[in-house]
Structure formats: structure tokens, C-alpha cells
Amino acid sequence: MKNLTYLSLFFLITSNISLAQSLEDAFSQKKMKEDLSIFKEIRIKGNSGLYKYRTKKQIDSIYDWAENEISTLSNYRGFYNIICTLTDFEGSAHNDTYLTEKLKKSLKIEEDGYFPFPVKWIDGKWIINFSEGDIPLGAEIVSVNNEKIEQVITNLYKYYTTDGVNTTGKRIGLGIHFSKYYRLHYGLSNQFTIEYKTNTSNKINRATLKSIGYIGYYRNFLNRYSEPYDNVKYKSWKNNEIYDYKTINKETGILTINSFSIGNEKNPRHFKYVAFLDSVFASIKNNQIKNLIVDVRNNGGGTDPNDLVTYSYLTNRNFSENKEAWISFKKIPFLKYYDSKYPFFLRALGVGRYNNEFQKVFPEEKDGKFYQNATSADHLVRKPNQNAFNGKVYLLISPRVASAGSLFAAMVAGNKNTVVIGEETLGGYYGHNGHSGLEYILPNSKLGISFSVVNLEQDVPKKENQIYGRGLVPDYNVTQKFEDYLQQEDTQMNFVQDLITKRD
Q1: What's the pTM value of the predicted model, to 2 decimals?
Q2: Domain boundaries, position 386
Q3: In the listed set 195, 225, 255, which residue is the last one of a domain according to the structure?
Q4: pLDDT tens-digit profile of 113-166?
Q5: DSSP letter string, 343-391
Q6: Model confidence pLDDT, tens digit, residues 243-290
Q7: 250 in a structural domain
Q8: How many folded domains does the chain comprise?
Q9: Where residue 321 sits, what CATH number does that domain have?
């Protein structure tokens, strides 16, 4: 699950942090090659998702590229970008590459060199999402520093991982961190030459913007024009905001589920959620609701079994969480580089219980893979709830949907009574790598790397419009329109309500 914490925390940065390291520091090619070799071996032995969406030939090819690229590099930032590229290429939303705390702090005190304004993807264009700058609100960006915006965006994709070859989900990260991503890829810039078009003309205008600092950019992000509408995509949910149900007329209701982070089956929050579902669906049945809008557009995932319990109220079939799940090791590999505060000899002693747990959960070995068997809770056959909804389901999705959120959305989309509206999800339709995560530290660069080790095939039917390696593709691709952006209107919710009216 992608953890998108609301960005007010950036104002907690203290003023007495010393600049101990810099991304621009020299870093020897010898150390780069050593870390690259270790990174590759960790992925081969530990990451079951390495070849999920890429062939061995493709993986070998990109590592050949990485080795050749090192011969052109001299600084830390260049190597960091290689590792980010390799991490992203695999295609897992649960993959991550992270800087040392010293480097993170060094970025946060940089006082200039950053692009000043937040951007947003609207109607297929990247626009200025700020009303108090030197470029008009909503202006379409054509180029930055003489590079076409399309190429700039492609270069920045690597910093926000998604499942398979999905790119819509990367807009979530770019919408928040465009300026930081630009700095990570291109370095610091004193100024930015921008070509842009206003929304009333095709004329290309040109402007030169003075750079600002890290904190200044995130201050502007918090004051972005779209904040009243899209703050829900980036916030940390309070308990009373996570789920909700309301009726909009006597035949139609809206069930909103913003997260499945509601605790496991032993948690009081989970019991409270189940009670909520029981009450809601009993009411839906008693009131003979015909149309149910299920809005999971802001659901980035969470904990089992909240996704599965919710699905039991929206299906008439028996189901399980996964058709298949496996890992690629019997014992956690490369403990020497495992991210732990304990020395290696203590690490080896302490990890025994984790290996025992993995071996218990994945006991069946076949062709070097270790599978769950029929006794696994993930393969438990579940039944529809007695109050399961049998009317028409209108599922609202977005690029924010991932992990348990996308698993749930994919299962609902597989039902014959479901119509899917919105934008392709970040998380895959047929499966993903999830559950247990491993974290390592590369010895020379001290870069952190993490990935989830369980290769999952979800219990969903094959559908013609669902493509392996992509997110959940909607039946109606609906994005926010420019005029709705200006008016802070919800294009997708308006669309689905109009669709219901027409069908009724």
C-alpha cells in the first residue's frame, strides 16, 4: 500500500539541521558497481515479482543498461536514479527506494533550485495548479527548460511505483512531488524557462520563473488551487472519515470506503466496521435500494480481512482472496544487508522465527517456488453475506486505488451486475506482489530498498477489457474536466448519477 501522509508534516522541519550529505556528492563507480551487483542478487533471490511483468531477457537487458550507465556517472544522484529506474521497471506498487535520513534532511533545507508551483493532470494535459503565481491558473505546460513536458514526465515516472506497466497511478505522486522529483532527476536549477498555453488560446507563451526552496514548494502545494477538491487523495484518514453510507434518493445509495486500514479480525475497529456493514446492507435490503454507488477512489489499501468482508456484501458467489500465492525463498536471503539495527550475528538468530513462519505459510515447493496450500487463510472459501446486495453496482475507481483497495475493486468489477466508472487503478486487476515486505540497505550507498515478497493471483474472472500488467480498466473512462476543475466539481460522481438516471 502506498502511504500518502498529508503534507503538513513538512512544516515540522527544524532549522538546526546541518548539511551532512548531498545528492551531488562524488560517488565512485567501483562502489556503484558493487552495490548494483548486490541489488541484483537480492532481487533475484528474494523478489518473487522480478519476472511477473518482465521477461528474463528484459530484466537482463535493463541491468546491462545500468552497468553501462555507471561508466558515465560520477555522483550519488546518478546512482540513486539508476536504482529507482530498476525498482520501477519491475512493476510493483509495493517496491520502494529510499534515501538515508541525512540525505532526506539535506533536501529539506535546500533554499532554492526547486520548481515553484504544483501541477495537475487534467484533460490529458499537465497544468499549473496554483492561482497566485506568475503563470495563469490552469495554463498548460508545453516545456520546462527547453524539454517537452511529455519527456519530463516520463523521466519522473520512476519515483512513484505502480503495478505492471500502469502509468495513471504515477500521476498521484507527480501531483504531490513534481518539484522534488524534478530536482532528483535533473538536479537543482536556478531558474525555469517555461513554455505554456492559456486555456483560451493556442498561442505558446514563454516565462522565466525563479526557483524556490524545498519547504517553499510544499507550502505552495498545500495552497494549491485544487486543495478543497482533492485533499482527500493525500490525507491521513481519521476514524470517522474512513467509511460512510448515504442515500441520494429512494432507489440509490452511496457507499464510500476510503481505506481498508481498519485493523485485522481481532481489532475493535474491524468489529465496528463489520457492524456498520451489517446495518447498512440490512437497511439497503429493507428499503429495496436498486442502485448502489461504491466509491473507493481514495482507497490505497489496508489490512485483511476488511476488503474480503466488504466484498461478501456485494457478491452472490463463493470466493477466496487468492487463487495462488508464492514466494521465491525458503529462508530470507542476504541477512548481511537486511535493514536492521542489530549486528549480523544477532540478526541471524532473531530471523529464525520469521523463516519458520514463511515455511509454515508457504510449505509446498515446486520448481524453486514456495506456495501456500489449501489450509491457508488466503484460500479459505468465503460465502456471500445473507444481506448481500443483488441490484446494480456502480463502482467508482481512480489511480489512487491500490493493494487491498485494488483487489477489492477487481473482485467487485468481476461481478456481472457491476459497471465501473473512473480511471484505471494503480493496483493490478489480475494480481500483484503484496503482503510481507523485506527491506535492505545497500552497503556503499546506504540506499534503502524494499519490496513485498508474495506473488498473488487474485480470485477474479478473465475479462476482455482487462489487460494483464495493467490496473483495473473502467467500463467508462471518466476524468475530471477542465471546467469542473475550475469549479471544484466532481465529474465522475456527476457522470454516474446521470448514468443511473438514464438507465432508470
Answers
A1: 0.92
A2: 239-503
A3: 225
A4: 999 999 999 999 999 999 999 999 999 999 999 999 999 999 999 999 999 999
A5: -HHHHHHHTHHHHHHHHHHS-EEETTEEE--TTSGGG--B---TT---S
A6: 999 999 999 999 999 999 999 999 999 999 999 999 999 999 999 999
A7: yes
A8: 3
A9: 3.90.226.10
